[in-house]
Amino acid sequence: xxxxxxxxxxxxxxxxxxxxxxxxxxxxxxxxxxxxxxxxxxxxxxxxxxxxxxxxxxxxxxxxx
Amino acid sequence: xxxxxxxxxxxxxxxxxxxxxxxxxxxxxxxxxxxxxxxxxxxxxxxxxxxxxxxxxxxxxxxxxxxxxxxxxxxxxxxxxxxxxxxxxxxxxxxxxxxxxxxxxxxxxxxxxxxxxxxxxxxxxxxxxxxxxxxxxxxxxxxxxxxxxxxxxxxxxxxxxxxxxxxxxxxxxxxxxxxxxxxxxxxxxxxxxxxxxxxxxxxxxxxxxxxxxxxxxxxxxxxxxxxxxxxxxxxxxxxxxxxxxxxxxxxxxxxxxxxxxxxxxxxxxxxxxxxxxxxxxxxxxxxxxxxxxxxxxxxxxxxxxxxxxxxxxxxxxxxxxxxxxxxxxxxxxxxxxxxxxxxxxxxxxxxxxxxxxxxxxxxxxxxxxxxxxxxxxxxxxxxxxxxxxxxxxxxxxxxxxxxxxxxx
Lengths: 65, 408
What we know:
Number of domains of chain B: 3
Oligomer: heterodimer
Number of strands of chain B: 26
Mean pLDDT of chain A: 94
Strand content of chain B: 25-35%
CATH class of chain A: Alpha Beta
Order of helices and strands of chain A: EHEEHE
Structural class of chain A: alpha+beta
Number of domains of chain A: 1
C-alpha cells in the first residue's frame, strides 16, 4: 500500500493539503504539517496525490511501499 | 476517455491539469504546449527566493523531462499557440505546426500589465522567469529601487530588494494598498510593516512619469515630487493572456467565459483553467476569474475530473485562498474579506513576531473570510469553517481557543 512522507523542513504551513485530504494531513500549532496516517489504501491514492500536488513547496510524497 | 487532450499553457494550471488527467486515468495522449523554451516553472518564488538569488532555476521546476515522460505527457515547449481552430479541433502554433485534439484545455494564464512609461532600460515588470532574471541582474548593482504598486507582488519585491540592501520606496495611489482587499486597518498595519523594515512608502499618490535609463531614472509622482531610482519595478496587476484566441470565435470577456464546469460556453470540448478562466461560480452566483496559485491547482483537478467523467460533471465552487510572504509576515487569506461588513481581530498584531487573525463577517453574520498572519493553524481552521458555512462568531470562538494551545 502507498506510504506517505512529509518534509517538515520544507513545509511553510500553506495548508492546501489539509483541504484536499483533511483525514491525512493537519498542521500543528507551529504551522507545520502533521501526517495523520503513514500508510493509505490504494483507493485513496488519487485523492492524496492531488493533495501532494497542491503543496506549493513540494514537501509531500506518495511512495510505493 | 482515450482521445488526445491538448493543454495550452505550461505554468502551474497547465502542468497540474496534465498530471491530474493521468490521476483520473485518462489513457489517451496528453500534449502540453508552452510558449517559453525552458521546463515549466513555478512563479511564487520569482518575487522572493529566486529574485533574491537563494534559489536557482532548478529549484522551481514544476515538471522535469523525466517526470513528463513517466506520466506520458508530451512536451511542446518554446513555441506559443497562435490560433485555436475550434471547428477543426486544432491548435495552430507560431511555427506553423498544428496539434489536433479531442479536448483542449486553455491554460495560458495572465501577463503582467505593461508599464505605461516607455523607458529604454531599468524599468521592470515581474511575471516570468526571464523577467525575474532581468530584475535580479539589475538588483545586483547598488542604487535605490522604486516599486510602483503596493499590492502583493510589489510588497514582496520591496521586501526582497530591501533585504539585499537597497533603499526602497513603494508608491501606490491608495492610502493603504492592501486595504482594498482586507480593509483599512490591516492595510495600515501592512504600511507599518514596510516602514518598520526601512522601506519608504508614498501611499495615496500615484506615479505620473518615469524618465531616464537603468541606473539613472527619475520617477515623477502625481503630486509633482520626484524620486531618483537606479531600478523601477512596475507591479500594477495582470491581464488574461487571450490574444491568441481573438479569431477563435470563443466568448472572451476578461478571460475565457466558461460555464460552472469550466467549459467554454457552447463548446463541450474546450476548457479553461487558472488565471485565464472566467467561470460561473455556483456558490457566488457570478462569473469570476481568480489569479491565485491555489485556484490554478484546484481548478486543474476539477477540469481533469470533468473532462474524464462527462456523466458526473462537478460545478467548480472553490473557497478562495491566497498567501503572501513579506518581511516577517506570512499572510494567508481565505474567502472574500472584501465582501465583509465587519471584522474582528484575534491575537497580537504588535507581538514580536506578530501573530494574529482577522475574522470577517457578512451581513448575515456568516463567516465571509479570514486573514491569518504567522498563524497557519488559525487559517486552516477558518478555511474549514468557511467551507462548512459557519457563523463568524463560531469562527472567532474557534480561533480564540487556538490562542492558548491546550495543555497535554
